[in-house]
Each structure stands twice: as C-alpha cells, then as structure tokens.
Amino acid sequence: MRAICEHALAGEGPVPAETRSDDLQRTEPDPRTIIRGWGTLTAEVSPRISPILLLLRAAASTDPQMAGLRAELDASRLHRMTGNARSLADAGHLREGITAEQAGEVLWAYSSPELYELLVLARGWPASRFGDFIADAMIAALLPPGPPAARVP
C-alpha cells in the first residue's frame, strides 16, 4: 500500500510532483504563482492518490496496520505542507498574524483526500476546477490582498 501511495504521489511524467513543487518554490518569487502551481499539482496528483487514501481510510477502521499507515501518511503530508508554509513565511509572504504552523495546517486541509471526495467525486467537479479552487482558497486564506497572478497552465 505504501509503494502504491508513493507512486501516486509522484504525479505524471518523469519529474516527481514534489520535486516540481520544490523547484517552483526555489525559482519563483511571486507567492500567488507558487500557490497556483500547487493548485495545478493538486489537480494532477489528487485523482491518483485520493481514491487510494479514501480506501485506506475505510480499511483503517478495522485494521490496525492500515490505521497506522494512514496516520503516518497524514503526518507526512502535514510535515510537507508545513515545510511549504515555512517557505512562504521565510520569504515574508504570509498574511500578518498567520504562523508557518497555522499555514501548514491550512495547506494540509486543502490537500486532503476528503475535500477531493466532496468536490470531485461527490459533486463531479473536473480536476482542473478543483485545482483552481484549491489555489484560490489557499491564496485567500494565507496571503495579504494583492493582484491576482495569471493561472498556471
């Protein structure tokens, strides 16, 4: 199950999604463009990983090993999202009064398989609309008001 999750989280193409996210954070100065990129990556990765995580959630209710794996993967996602938030904080991009830890929790919530389940699986949103929603919501929650960035293709 762990290997299946790792494969799904890599996304599509030869460069893993995590590496592309790191590269974007390292090279892009505009936080709105960075977050729009995260929305694009979310739209790419969520259809691959969320159904697996939702299956894991169901299995975790009766299997202690699956519950442990679910907790581990949730903690890993929170760690990753807190690192992303810390990058925004270190660059001075977060709205006043929001800590990197709080921002990490926001990013963690917006990257949850449960949100994908509600909007894409239950409501039928296309992945691209979901990615745009995620980006817009993260920008609104974390950044000070400013000009909107162009959508990432």
Task: Explain how this protein is built.
- This protein has a single domain (2-142), classed as Tetracycline Repressor, domain 2 (Orthogonal Bundle), CATH 1.10.357.10.
- It is 74% helix and 0% strand.
- The protein is built from seven helices and no strands.
- It is globular, with a radius of gyration of 15 Å.
- The termini are far apart.
- The model has no long low-confidence stretch (mean pLDDT 93).
Which tags fit this structure?
single chain, 153 residues, Tetracycline Repressor, domain 2, globular
Compact description:
This protein is an all-alpha fold and 153 residues long.
Question: Which helices and strands, and how do they pair?
Answer:
Blueprint: H1 2-9, H2 17-27, H3 31-60, H4 64-90, H5 100-110, H6 113-122, H7 127-142
CATH superfamily descriptor = Tetracycline Repressor, domain 2
Percent range for β-strand residues: under 5%
Distance between the termini: 32 Å
> What are the segments in which pLDDT stays under 50 over at least 5 consecutive residues?
none
- Under CATH, the topology can be stated as Tetracycline Repressor, domain 2
Helix-strand makeup class: mainly alpha
